[in-house]
Here is the input.
Amino acid sequence: TGTPPTPNPAPASPAPANSTVAVSDANGVVTTTLPVGNYSVYALGLVGSQLLAGFASAYLPASQPEITLAPLAIGPAVRLGGTVAGGVGPTSSTVLTLFDARGDSVATHVNQSSGFAFYVPQGTYSLLAVSAPSSASGASSPSLPGQTFAAATNVTVTYPTVLSVVLAPAVVVR
Here is the structure.
């Protein structure tokens, strides 16, 4: 009985690094407008006093003017953080991408102290860190101009976890 509430489009606001932030309504529903393409959908928020997180991938095709995504599975958030060493310099752009068992991903950049953090549900993840030459100077390391560095590891997160990621010279395959 009754009419379901009409969703109010959440204002999408700019966020760093090619991101869009949208806020859910009181029922946890997000409505926003995005260009056609592939997306990583990441949710982080408080329900009561518990921090919850979840992420998934979504493809928005040009053939559909409107699409409803499956509900995002979320769980208690656990912090996965640490530092990145080797190949990281002031002219580099180091990106860490975390993949779950389904291949869905979420990414972050290192901060000025070469630190990083993700808040994710408990689980097993693959982490890929890549430090590539920055577009501004063309060099990722003062000692090895133009060199790309990378590291990969698997990690199971069941409680707050700290990783030390050490980058090594990498080969770019095209």
About this structure: The longest strand covers residues 37-47. The CA atoms of residues 122 and 157 lie 5 Å apart. The chain has no helices and twelve strands.
